[in-house]
Amino acid sequence: MALTKFAVTPGFEVGGFLFTPKQLAELGSIVGEDANIEMTNFGQLYVVMDDKRIEEVQEKLQRTGLKIQPAGFYSKNLIACNFCRGAEEAGLDIAKALDATIAGHPTPSPLKIGYAGCALGTSEPLLKDIGVVKMRNTFDIYLGGEPKGLKAALGQQLISGIMERQLIPIITGLIRHYQENGKKKEKFSKFVKRVSMEKLRVVVSDSFENE
């Protein structure tokens, strides 16, 4: 029996990705007892199951409102805070738009992008590969956070004070640069050190010009 793995998310709302009891019950019922469900630390559940049933299962899951994403070396769904300052002040709409844009792109190594609606940073954006922090009406971007191991480190600030309209072009530009220039299985934190923050600031400048 050949096995296939894919990711499932509940959809992005206030609080980020929160599965309801109904969604979890439907997920278990649809994938069946022979499948395995793995927890992740980035808002997705991984389903491992017989690939002969994949199309049927994914279609049923999508009809319930659950979202399907590829598992493995891809950019993950946005890891967000709980928007405790309110949806408008914390930027829920831009966070939703960012999530819809970034998820599911093939990358040299799994890419995690964090979002915080204020400087409290409850989603720990500085420990993500790319971290976005809303600062009143602008955004700061951090790169290269490393949460695990002996070399754990906070991300470095790439740029501050960018406007909402600039955010998605900058993040997609960084993902594209990583896709095109990252080595196979090279973690993003190592990529940042190898390429340098100076070079990545040039990438950001090019993103501004190509808006």
CATH class group of the largest domain: Alpha Beta
Task: List the secondary-structure elements in sequence, H or E.
Answer: EHEEHEEHHEEEEHHH
Shape: globular
Unreliable parts: none
Assess the beta-strand content as a share of residues.
15-25%
Largest sheet: 5 strands, mixed
Helix content class:
25-40%
For the record, the count of structural domains works out to: 2
Strand order of the largest sheet: 5-6-7-8-9
CATH superfamily of the largest domain: Sulfite Reductase Hemoprotein, domain 1
Q: State mean pLDDT (0 to 100 scale).
A: 92
CATH-derived topology of the largest domain: Sulfite Reductase Hemoprotein, domain 1
Q: Structural class, please?
A: alpha+beta
Cα-to-Cα separation, first versus last residue: 48 Å
Would you count the extended β strands for me? 9
Architecture of the largest domain, according to CATH? Answer: 2-Layer Sandwich
SS field, number of helical segments: 7
